[in-house]
Amino acid sequence: QIGLAFRNEISPRAGLLRVREFLQAEIEHFVNPNDKSHVRFDKIKDNKAYLFSRELQNQKGGKSVLMSFGEAVEKKIIDNQTLAYFLARTQLFLTTCGVSPLKLRFRQHLANEMAHYAADCWDAEIYLRGYKWVEVAGHADRSAYDLKVHSKATKTTLEAQKSLSTPRIENVIEAVPVMKLMGKAFKGDAKIVRAHLVDLDQEGVLALEKELAGGSAKITAGG
User: Fold this and answer.
1) Rounded to the nearest 5 degrees, what angle is found at the Cα of 85, between the Cα atoms of 137 and 157?
2) What sign has the CA pseudo-torsion 50, 52, 53, 58?
3) Is the pLDDT of residue 14 over 70?
4) What is the reported pTM?
5) Cβ contact 120:108 at 8 Å
6) At what angle do helices 179-186 and 190-199 cross, to 10 degrees?
7) Which residues 6+ apart lie within 8 Å of 115 measured at CB?
8) DSSP states of 23-80
9) I need a surface site. Which of 55, 196, 205, 220 has the fewest CB within 10 A?
């Protein structure tokens, strides 16, 4: 999506870098969390870019290094093929716009910059005289966090289905409340407790089961 973004700048400064209104574009790309390969990765794997990994940033005097995207993924510097593919596409876009490859680098977020749910994050930075390195694009593998939160809030399943060549049977652990018994035990709060149990993931169900094995368990439901 492409559109205007607005920022509450009391005192706009730094030329065009800190303005109240600017045009912004965003791509939200969904992948299989168990397979983050990209069908077009082979087309860009030999492309090279200056990468400033968190390891290099933590070194005294560390500088970015020129490396192919294929090598970066192989060495797990970049977490996966899909993320590397979009870094390469950003590089192509920026150089097509006239940015010199020598003044363009990708800087990996440090551990204390990343959200707890993120798998990997990189910023495209351009060297500007008078400003030094300036971020112009951000790339984040946010895992499935956004979908899970939205799905939980809306009670809507946001899962894609994939046809398998051969059928596969998997054991799924989930809480299945028996409302007849819960009604007697919790009365007017039965629906609230049921909603909490239904929202538990597999780890949550197993943890609750383990606690109940000791005779009782305590949950916090309905806020």
Assistant:
1) 85
2) positive
3) no
4) 0.73
5) yes
6) 130
7) 142, 145
8) EEE------BTTB---TTHHHHTT-EEEEE-HHHHTSTT---EEEEHHHHHHTTSSS-
9) 220
